[in-house]
Design brief:
By secondary structure, this protein is an all-alpha fold. The chain has 4 helices and no strands. About 7% of the residues have low confidence.
Length: 172
């Protein structure tokens, strides 16, 4: 019977040791879960702070680009006003004399006539086109839509340089 008691004591001690190990493992697992949850909260808070910084920088950049576009439009508007002022005859300026009639010269063949361009005239002729193009670009229109509206308002012509410049400026 003594050996039965020893076996029961040994089994009880083993069972107690197993319960202790399981309890310690459960406690450690709970601690690991708490640490992981706390780290997840920290990571989420840092990610939210980083996202806010990125969003704030993006908004500031966008405001800067809008301000630059407004300044460009103001500058173009000033150029247009200056060009229009320059084109209007001043009081007291003598009217140009009518051209004398001369023998008609033969007109060049249609293929010899230069294609219309949007090169700036001496009085800033493309300022109005540039102003309209800049306004459309700032409104978010693409290059094709801007060109279509310019053709509608000002007639056909090569505006590739003007369009590239305006779209590039508006994108800044």
């Amino acid at each position: 019977m003594n050996s039965e008691r020893d076996a029961e004591d040994l089994a009880a001690k083993a069972a107690e040791a197993v319960r202790r190990v399981v309890t310690e493992a459960e406690d450690r697992a709970a601690e690991i879960v708490r640490e992981a949850e706390a780290e997840a909260v920290t990571i989420r808070e840092q990610a939210e702070a980083d996202a806010k910084q990125i969003r704030d920088r993006g908004e500031a950049d966008a405001r800067g680009q809008i301000e630059a576009a407004k300044r460009a439009l103001d500058e173009l508007g000033g150029t247009l006003v200056a060009a229009a002022t320059e084109a209007i005859p001043k009081p007291g300026t003598p009217e140009p004399e009518p051209a004398r009639e001369a023998e008609p010269e033969p007109e060049p063949a249609p293929e010899a006539q230069p294609a219309p361009t949007s090169e700036p005239a001496a009085n800033g002729g493309d300022a109005a086109e540039r102003l309209v193009a800049m306004r459309l670009a700032v409104e978010g229109k693409d290059q094709a839509a801007i060109e279509a509206e310019l053709i509608e308002k000002f007639g056909p012509g090569d505006r590739s340089d003007l369009l590239r410049d305006v779209v590039a400026r508006a994108a800044r």
